[in-house]
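Recall the central idea of this unit: under ordinary conditions, the amino acid sequence of a chain determines the structure it adopts. In this exercise we apply that idea directly, starting from the sequence alone.
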Amino acid sequence: MKNKIELMNNPINNENAIIMQLSVVGIIGNILLTAFKLFAGIIGNSGAMVSDAIHSLSDVFATFIAFVGVKISKCKPDKAHPYGHERIECVASLVLGLILLLTGLGIGKASITTIIAGHYDKLTIPSMIALVAAFVSIITKEAMFWYTIYYAKILNSTAFVADAWHHRSDAISSIGALIGIGGAMLGFPIFDSVASLLICLLILKVAFDILKDSIVKMLDTSCDDVFEKELLDFIVIQTDVIGVDKLHTRMFGNKVYVDLEIKVDGNKTLKEAHAIAEHIHDTAENKFSSIKHIMIHLNPA
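Accordingly, the structure predicted from this sequence is:
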């Protein structure tokens, strides 16, 4: 509910406008940053910065995929998809995770090859422009993380949350690049390759987290105990509810389906029992904005 209120009070006041704004900022910002980092990496003789630039390039595809996934997820239910399209966000997040995974493995392979080859004394020392690019990347990507995560929470979008963490992973990898470039400039050229390897590990960690979250939400996994207890406590205090026989939840993308069985007075008429169920249905969905639908079955006490 809080997120919905924030959305209504937001100057943009439109989900589609927010989605478009996030996507434009993410794509254009990453294209410009990638170009600068790639230029700095090549001119500045830094393998770590080139690796970081490749990571930023993957962010361009990540933001585009998040945009497409969120737009489709907002489509209304149709004959082929009567339950809606929210799960497409999970698919989008899954693709984002795979992009990160492949990016990390590619960077790791190149780094390990350089380290194993040896001949560290023959490695080129990075120049100042590579160090400057690392600073710029850290500041820019951290700002993009906070910007994206703020609106992702308002939209309750798992795809844009994944995209935000993609920005954060890029900022962290730039810190690794900064350390590696700085170390190489101080006379330890192997630090540049080691930094690339650390960037690989950071990317793989984020990829694993995103893939895990996506798969969990695609498997009808139940909500956590905190959410279920809060929902149960809300149900049992409703008028005419004598007890709760069953409460099952399952995640459906960024939404939740609930199956509920409650006990009511067996002497109630069908019309009265229906009114009780309808009241609980409406109040629960209004209080818990993440609930897409709650199915209620009545048992006579």
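The longest helix spans residues 88-117.
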